[in-house]
Amino acid sequence: MNHYGAQMMRHWEAERPSEFAELEEVEHFTQMGEEIAERVELRARGLAGTSPPEEGYLARLQRLNTARLEAEGDVVREFLMPEPPQAL
Question: Greatest CA span in the chain, whole angstroms?
Answer without folding.
Answer: 54
